[in-house]
Amino acid sequence: xxxxxxxxxxxxxxxxxxxxxxxxxxxxxxxxxxxxxxxxxxxxxxxxxxxxxxxxxxxxxxxxxxxxxxxxxxxxxxxxxxxxxxxxxxxxxxxxxxxxxxxxxxxxxxxxxxxxxxxxxxxxxxxxxxxxxxxxxxxxxxxxxxxxxxxxxxxxxxxxxxxxxxxxxxxxxxxxxxxxxxxxxxxxxxxxxxxxxxxxxxxxxxxxxxxxxxxxxxxxxxxxxxxxxxxxxxxxxxxxxxxxxxxxxxxxxxxxxxxxxxxxxxxxxxxxxxxxxxxxxxxxxxxxxxxxxxxxxxxxxxxxxxxxxxxxxxxxxxxxxxxxxxxxxxxxxxxxxxxxxxxxxxxxxxxxxxxxxxxxxxxxxx
Length: 366
Known about the structure:
Elements: H1 2-17, H2 19-26, H3 28-39, E1 47-53, H4 58-69, E2 73-78, H5 82-91, E3 96-100, H6 104-109, E4 117-120, H7 125-140, H8 170-201, H9 204-209, H10 214-243, H11 252-274, H12 280-297, H13 310-316, H14 320-332, H15 338-365
Parallel strand pairs: 1-2, 1-3
Antiparallel strand pairs: 3-4
Helix pairs in contact: 1-10, 3-8, 3-10, 8-10, 8-11, 8-12, 8-14, 10-11, 10-15, 11-12, 11-14, 11-15, 14-15
């Protein structure tokens, strides 16, 4: 413990002198949250819609009005021919086109189910899928004519209820992933550069001569960064609650435990990277790759793991952000306690023990 505290105090003094590192650990994560939080948004509003109303009846105009009144579509143009439709979509003026055929109102009055055509620009598959869902929902709930009632009552009435995110805001889904993403990158880079800096300055030889064990050296190096990373992670969460309306339905103590376990493992990854890097440039690049790509792709941050090949799902079991996201979303969005999240927390403990053990072994050999 004496050696651990000695290394920790030494590193704390180094951080205090290195204002750049201190800024990266405390302020940059919050800046990244604002940048990615406002840039990454899967909610689609104000879709440019063109209309070709071949029926020109009160019923057809009521359908167009339903689209115009919604928060999802803006009627930007009317088309008189198929050639105009092609031009509007090709130029990007309209992302969707609503075509109402002749006889639309007559078929409604006769009790039939008229068909309308919706043309969607599919150059962006995700956007096209979302727009198609909006169109389907609007057509199912559309009102026709002056009475405002549908001509037929549905055989089955569906009343969906969405738990934990009733408005289906993508921000609520993305912000917890951003917290894990930003915390992982800053934690790994900070400890990796800390040890490699010792190599570049030639002070690693003095550390080898000092009566400090490898385990105490690694733990002492990460302890100051753990405190700073905890402060940075909590600042990100508070900022997300203030600026992005992130709910907090769980216990703050459970949240602190989950963050601490995740950061311990992330900080332990830095010393492991430093054993294969001799310069800060190489360490920075390696840390960015190790922290960025797995956390972004294989953690469930954006892409669901269930849709990935089985091999990638097995590989994702080695990504700590995968378990941290389960715990974070469970605590923040669902209000779960630690008793429900123990498998994810246990996985974070196993990861932390493994990376610290590997770091200590490799540094001892060096």
